[in-house]
UniProtKB/TrEMBL annotation:
Residues 60-178 form the Receptor L-domain domain. It comes from Octopus bimaculoides (California two-spotted octopus). This is Receptor L-domain domain-containing protein. Residues 1-24 form the signal peptide. One of its GO terms (cellular component) is membrane. Residues 194-265 form the Furin-like cysteine-rich domain. It comes from the Eukaryota. Keywords: Glycoprotein, Kinase, Signal, Transferase, Tyrosine-protein kinase. InterPro entries: Furin-like_Cys-rich_dom (IPR006211), Rcpt_L-dom (IPR000494), Rcpt_L-dom_sf (IPR036941).
């Protein structure tokens, strides 16, 4: 009986300690975890049922454990996807396919871990996959902005943005700040059908790189830049300045403000620093 009580007490202590640890991290946030899905392009139900499922699963979620799959919201309406706005971390891949919303408001998304990738064609895999988000033979219905201004790292896998004929601003993104190699990024349009786009607003101009990059039309859609392409060759991809003494700690993902693991924006395990 005493052993049983000790075991229960230990469980209570560990549970309480875990909660305190989460509350005491420098992020000052407790993650709201939701489980992702692993269905690929398979679907069930109509678009109204799928929308309800997505909203129920991802509302108030900050951490997707697994894949974020949004697929086949293909009725003739502009879907409100604001329930995605709090998601900060996805451990698997992000798949956005045949979504007829004008915007994907992943405003808080900072890191896609890519612990597993989506196979979109034979032998071709991606961890950010944005595929055919427009209505064929229609001049109005389709995705305009992929709103991910906070995204600073895709840790593993490729980027595929395929035949989203109304999608703007993607060509402005400095992908080398997000993925290690530009060969990981493929953007394909039906060139004869590609919409004409506005440019980024001047407020998104970065003096350090003399570039203008954005995910949408507005000062809040400027691309976050964390020195990814300005690092010394001695740094393992991330840094907080151009010299060899300004490398981020090996536990950092997405950048840092100093050399220790206490200065990370994110940890390589996917948690907020």
């Amino acid at each position: 009986m005493k052993d049983c009580c000790r075991f229960i007490a230990l469980i209570v202590f560990l549970s309480a300690s875990t909660f305190i640890l989460l509350e005491a991290t420098p992020s000052r946030l407790t993650e709201r975890v939701c489980l992702g899905t692993d269905n690929g392009m398979s679907i069930s139900g109509d678009s109204a049922i799928r929308y309800s499922r997505y909203k129920n699963r991802y509302s108030n979620c900050t951490y997707v454990d697994g894949n974020l799959e949004l697929k086949f919201l293909d009725a003739d309406q502009d879907y409100d996807l604001n329930f995605l706005k709090d998601i900060r971390i996805v451990t698997g891949y992000v798949l956005i396919a045949v979504i007829y919303a004008r915007y994907i408001p992943l405003h808080s998304l900072q890191i896609i871990r890519g612990s597993n990738n989506f196979e979109w064609t034979d032998g071709s895999f991606c961890s950010l996959c944005v595929i055919m988000n427009h209505k064929p033979n229609d001049s109005d219905i389709g995705l305009r902005e992929l709103q991910m201004p906070a995204l600073t790292e895709i840790s593993n896998g490729n980027v595929v943005i395929y035949k989203n004929n109304f999608l703007c601003f993607i060509d402005t993104i400095a992908w080398t700040l997000i993925v290690p190699r530009t060969s990981q990024v493929a953007v394909v349009y039906h060139e004869t059908e590609k919409a004409k786009c506005y440019g980024c607003i001047h407020g998104c101009h970065k003096l350090r790189t003399d570039t203008i990059s954005c995910w949408g039309l507005g000062i809040d859609m400027c691309q976050t830049q964390n020195n990814g392409s300005a690092c010394s060759s001695s740094c393992a991809y991330r840094c907080f300045g151009p010299t060899s003494s300004q490398c981020c700690h090996s536990e950092c993902a997405g950048g840092c403000t100093g050399p220790t693991n206490r200065d990370c924006y994110l940890f390589t395990g996917g948690t907020i620093a």
